[in-house]
Write a structure and sequence with these properties.
single chain, 5 strands, 161 residues
Length: 161
């Protein structure tokens, strides 16, 4: 066979291979595009989000929902909610929680939740941040290793009466 015939046969083989490859690639692309172009129905996407194992396992909620009970938040989320008040509370060594003026908080569970103290060290060693959606309030709770009675005793308004 001559060189020209060999080149001609080789060229035909290349063109045939390219043509077949192009058709296969085109059909695969069109099939994939058809599968991804099917839009979610609005109700389906809500069901998917509500029932997702990832959301459930990690206790994620959508941003338009609020919690009924106070819950711990990361420090970087403190003060991030528009319209929420921020306050600093003190948790003394004798398990007394007070406001900024060292007044004892009696309704701890309603204000910051009953288990807030278990979260010291979770983000920061000596502080816990709690969000109370029902009160639209963020609380920074600082641990104080002193006894409440010792702190109050040294205040000018204190009397042992």
């Amino acid at each position: 066979m001559s060189k020209a015939a060999t080149l001609f046969i080789f060229g035909c083989g290349v063109l045939t291979g390219m043509s077949i490859g192009f058709r296969i690639a085109k059909s695969v692309y069109e099939e994939a595009a058809t599968e991804t172009e099917q839009p979610f129905e609005e109700d389906d996407s809500i069901d998917i989000l509500e029932n997702s194992e990832i959301i459930t396992e990690n206790s994620y909620t959508s941003s338009d929902k609020t919690e009924d009970k106070p819950y711990v938040i990361p420090p970087e989320e403190f003060g991030e909610m528009e319209g929420y008040i921020q306050s600093s509370l003190t948790y003394y060594a004798d398990k007394i929680l007070t406001d900024e003026d060292d007044n004892i908080i009696d309704d701890v569970e309603d204000i910051v939740g009953a288990d807030f103290a278990k979260h010291f060290g979770e983000y920061e060693e000596d502080s816990v941040f709690v969000r109370n959606d029902s009160k639209k309030h963020d609380y920074e709770i600082l641990k104080d290793f002193r006894l409440y009675s010792d702190v109050v005793k040294n205040k000018p308004h204190y009397s042992e009466g």
